[in-house]
Design a protein that fits this description.
The structure is a homotetramer of 360-residue chains. By secondary structure, chain A is α+β, with helices and mostly antiparallel strands. Chain A has eight helices and 18 strands. Chain A is globular.
């Protein structure tokens, strides 16, 4: 109710502020008997980690994590899985100057308005540090999806005005990870690198789009009215820090199309009912139709920049927020595993929900 | 869990298929003592109703509704408000030819895959008829919002390639309702009318965008992590039939901006902390900041067109779906009150949730 | 959140006041493809109905009900099932004298304290009339349980100091229904009849216990920590009007036993693991163990009596509440189908929840 | 959904197995600005701790706990509070003999049936060790209740056939804590001590009743239909290990009473509406009426005894479970703080819920 949980049957609850003792997640509803792959958690955390390359903030987040419960002899036992990640590199004093002033387009002001009392250090609970806990939960979700054959690939499809050309049917994790910016179009990838580099030197930031494709989804996942599969995917993505938009399949472009162009004709392919086009993005009437699920997530330029900015303090007096501390010129490369994680969490939840729709 | 409810503290549950006896809604969590305005429900249903103009399907939906519970002597009593709307004009035989074939880009195939047994008439539960129940719930939500001063205005901002120019600070319901297509930019409105008319003659359909602005929202609404205010608004909108995308504030355009351009500087205006620009769309860190909340909702062209379409039947054999029945060339004008309704429901829910964040 | 819904995966929401237009229920999460038995609903409603015999209030409640949605060609389709029951015999004027005074041990005072504005007629939302909606939902739950072989039998095991002797392994619905007071022990049944008759003549009321046995439950239903099967059964029963206590298996008597007497030894019977005794009441560690589930529900004497009673009005001034209107000398015979209904609802919910604990 | 969370607006999620790395709890929905009293947590944990006296198991549970999040400068900040308690004294080898056999009246068999794969050491997730996490959450709940003046006192009212006489209006925590068995009736307390001592020597166990009184509750807490205050209290108590029954106010005794004796007459006392008797136990129609809330909780004799017991193993073959390991002859003295904790959690949840019933 206070918004720190997500999912119904597969339900995660995250906790922790960026400069507290630890962050973490409790995963409830993870079925028993699933083999645990700790290496996957390490990999996914590493992919999200700041400081992996010059394009990302130099804060050294540790990848240490500790699984406290829910696993016995390498397999899940059906009880909640709690994982903590210590906050190793918490330089609170970097934030002392922010105790009473509100950074533009951060959550400082709104938290103050909502709670009265807040942890101002590094954004506290509003920090993107929280997404590390989501990534861990996502790794667990992927272990289950792997067992039923569902695969998720996310990648950077644009940075500012540089757009990649990617074939959703063929794109693979390996291809994505070859690129420093996680864009599987080599040419676009190199242009993006250059742009981010120059933006970083300016002390500025830039936005971009992460695209995602989910493969081998059985038809039937998603609930028909409010919990449509793409509505839950949309909420999941919009809950990630810095996300301003979400679209499924043809998305905003569909608003410019006619029905006769947009409709996906059904046909039969090797005994399986498929559609000739996929403007639906794999979801029709809120329920998966067996085609690839495809969606895009819009990230704004991150708010922390290196120049001084005009602001006010808690008394409403004008002040200046100085540009210092660590700084991430473009968040989308690191956002790729976060998008994957939230997609995996939604898919597992709906996979489990769908098991209850018919008896016997 | 089966997805027919929405909201936490203000919780609506809708029911009913398009060709069953009735549709309806149960609203739970409506506080006691609110004056009930039945006229508002009539107006909102009338605005959503098919057949209001030549641009909308000629099916004559009744605006009759019956409030069964929850009201005593003109005021709410805190118990659930149940409302039913009979299905008066249910011409089931129009749909006999669809019993075994799947209309392209409808939910026929996915419902069959999910449930095995389905009501094929008019889409059954997947029909947009369900949104009438949402509109009723939205009218109740507006009664509460009216009492605390929050106002919602939605309008059509584009149809295909025709884009309106609208000032979100000034736009009003009255202005919107002057236009047949609910676009408050007169010139764009008349172009949209012409386009929809010509598309209708072709037996085709076209998509568009509904924009929405929420005014006088206090700072502090929204929960910080998963239930960010814009994440819940996004889910609410994506759950509406035919919606393919959602964006808050600067949305997808933000991906092309730099942080230095995008950040909303804080300033003080008559003792109130405000931002100079509003790229945030009134929400920062998932919590309202007191500025207007602004968002866009992308509607695809509706799938029912008047030409024959290639498809398959439940056995996977190729077949043709004939273009007959009633047909709505452009859904966005009628979608305006639905967007308002879902926005109102989200706002009331978060208004109530926020009352529990501090004690005393 | 406002407490008008029950269950997680099988979720019912009831609505309606005793003297409003109708009461009803929306059932969400009923799986598709279940055959609907309307006759069972009629029977169960008839068993709960006031006025079935001289032992129950003479208010003539109608057994009419209307299924508005969720069924197509005699089977469920997976969408919500809404059922309404009109309030036919609503003699509001009987309650005019109660508009401002609080009946002792009713909910008049607490509703006034909570909501400020209330429907005082017949208790409004607090009336036991609401339980008719539960009975309808219970009938649907029984249809599903029937399909998987689970059977529920409830009966009156005591009225005041008259205790029945009943063998839980053998008791059947047919046997229970032979008795006017729904007690399958003939001798006790006839004593109970006499007692209730004499209490009725005094204008007084008397309490009693309803016992329930659930047969053929597979091992594994129930969640381990907070949603233990008997915890959910307990909540379900305690939510019924006039219930003051709940116990599972050995219940309060267990507090007087030693562990060596109380423990249920495991043994093997025809290849199935069973227990020699059943002090556990079929539930161990919150999870069904395959033995009969047995529990008792304590009903206080109903509060409406025919003598004048001391009370206060809303201003706190002393007043007298006159004993008039209709009156039910002992509620337990009519409570039997309500206990069955709530048990069925809990069982279906946990049956569906258990389907998600293992993958594949 | 998997049952490891409790509460709606004040929501706790516990995790951890008895012989894993740690147990813990995440508390979501704790309002901001509440002063944190760590000493209270220490005290409450100490009162629950095994090994406090010769009457309780000699396992040395640590009272160490670590607050990982949600607190800043000594006050809550509205974000989730995560607390871990390490499992210091986990002698797994004590349980090696139980890997394949099922202890009578424990959860070994039902967990095996439900999950297939389980942690057999010390009961794993089913161990009463989990209740330490509840006690911590309860301490936080008490901090909030203290701020609004609500007070909770629980005590042992019976052990086997020894019944205490206690005046609920006067009983205090100090008085309870004077007694080794937490029974504020000195004479009964000393008899209970003797009985428990003799049972311990026999290697046997014995049950008992914990009574609880909640003072200074404002009228209006509780939701009217399914989430009645006593229904939620009942579920909370029934979810505690070894609990077999719950009753509110007059409870099972009410079944033997007449309405004319049982009804609580209203009267006025210093301008406040009160009842002359309190058979209702402070709750009418599911909502608090401002009188003391009083209820009883029945605990069975714990299942671990020192004699050999007949059982079967996972193949269904007959076997003997040896009586060894640590052993708690009577759990009710240690259960007192657990009952308090669960009561506090329910009260806070409903206190917050009630804030949303009226607007303005």
């Amino acid at each position: 109710m206070a918004g720190n949980s997500f999912g119904d049957l597969f339900r995660i609850t995250t906790f922790g502020e960026s400069h507290g003792k630890a962050i973490g997640v409790v995963i409830d509803g993870f079925p028993a008997g699933i083999e645990i792959n700790e290496e996957l958690i390490h990999q996914d955390l590493q992919r999200r980690r700041p400081g992996q390359s010059k394009f990302t903030t130099q804060r050294k987040e540790t990848e240490d994590f500790q699984i406290l419960s829910g696993i016995f002899e390498g397999k899940s036992i059906g009880s909640p899985i709690a994982v903590t990640i210590p906050n190793a590199d918490a330089r609170s004093k970097d934030y002392a100057h922010l105790e009473k002033s509100f950074r533009p387009s951060h959550a400082d002001f709104t938290y103050e308005a909502k709670y009265g009392h807040r942890d101002h250090r590094g954004g506290g609970r509003s920090s993107a540090r929280e997404t590390a806990a989501r990534v861990v939960a996502g790794s667990f979700a992927k272990m289950l999806l792997g067992q039923v054959g569902i695969e998720i690939v996310a990648y950077v499809s644009s940075v500012a005005n540089i757009n990649a050309t990617v074939d959703n049917k063929k794109v693979s994790l390996a291809e994505v990870e070859k690129s420093l910016v996680r864009c599987p179009d080599e040419e676009a990838s190199s242009e993006m690198e250059q742009l981010i580099n120059s933006v970083r030197k300016e002390g500025d930031t830039v936005g971009g789009i992460v695209s995602c494709v989910v493969k081998n989804v059985p038809a039937g996942l998603g609930e028909p009215v409010f919990d449509k599969l793409h509505a839950d995917l949309g909420k999941a993505m919009l809950s990630i820090n810095a996300v301003k938009g979400f679209e499924i399949g043809s998305g905003f472009a569909s608003t410019k199309m006619k029905g006769s162009e947009h409709n996906d004709a059904f046909t039969s392919e090797g005994g399986k009912i498929v559609t000739e086009t996929n403007n639906s993005g794999g979801v029709q009437g809120g329920i998966s139709n067996g085609m690839n699920i495809t969606f895009n997530v819009a990230f704004k330029p991150v708010a922390t920049i290196m120049s001084d900015q005009k602001s006010v303090n808690s008394e409403g007096t004008e002040t200046t927020v100085a540009g210092k501390g660590r700084h991430d010129p473009c968040v989308v490369p690191r956002a790729v595993p976060i998008v994957e994680a939230m997609a995996a969490i939604v898919l597992v939840d709906h996979y489990l929900r769908n098991k209850t729709q018919q008896v016997g």
